[in-house]
Amino acid sequence: DAKTTQPPSMDCAEGRAANLPCNHSTISGNEYVYWYRQIHSQGPQYIIHGLKNNETNEMASLIITEDRKSSTLILPHATLRDTAVYYCIVRALNSGGSNYKLTFGKGTLLTVNP
Amino acid sequence: DAGVTQSPTHLIKTRGQQVTLRCSPKSGHDTVSWYQQALGQGPQFIFQYYEEEERQRGNFPDRFSGHQFPNYSSELNVNALLLGDSALYLCASSSLLRTSGLNQETQYFGPGTRLLVL
User: Fold this and answer.
1) Bridge partners for B117 per DSSP
2) DSSP notation for A14-56
3) Taking CB atoms and an 8 Å cutoff, what residues of chain B touch A104?
4) How far is B7 from chain A (nearest CA, A)?
5) CB contacts, 8 Å: A49 with chain B
6) What is the per-residue pLDDT for A97?
7) What are the tens digits of pLDDT across the range A14-68?
8) Which of A2, A9, A28, A25 is nearest to A106 (CA)?
């Protein structure tokens, strides 16, 4: 799986949009970009994933650049409860489907301030 | 709420003992993965079970073993516990989907079992 690079920490004011970047310059054509977050001492929570088109769900939006070498997770109106470590993971299941693991890096600690 | 449940929530064991952790997947999921998360680190993949067989294994010793039952629930067993096995153990459930010619599998995590080895 392609390696990802994320800033170790970011701050955001409550009510403002939080934009979390992820660099995945070695991504290959069949690799998806997944985002998870982990609030302290809880299990990781799935947020969103995408291949090449921008995606939006009730939690967030995922913007993937045209060359797919980077992406941004957008939380449109951050709240204090969004304070967490956010993980960007790039992963493919090959045609035989033999790579099922998620490889977590260190992620970005997002702190939402009142 | 992802619907994945794990038991127990906390556990204290001593070195050399054996432990069994349990996981029930989200309704409709047939696959269970296990991860170990040491303090301050990201989760590390232990193995994944599908159709009651270990489908993929991470870099963990044979002391770590698992089982999947016909109802898709799963157990993680760790023998001869070491102090370094102290961690949060996470279970994730999923099912394989095929979309636009590519396989997709989104894993949903449970709350974890915190194991302390003394």
Assistant:
1) B13
2) TTS-EEEEEE-TT--TTPEEEEEEE-TTS--EEEEEESSS-EE
3) 42-44
4) 13
5) 104, 106
6) 54
7) 999 999 999 999 998 888 999 999 998 899 999 999 998 899 999 999 999 999 9
8) A9
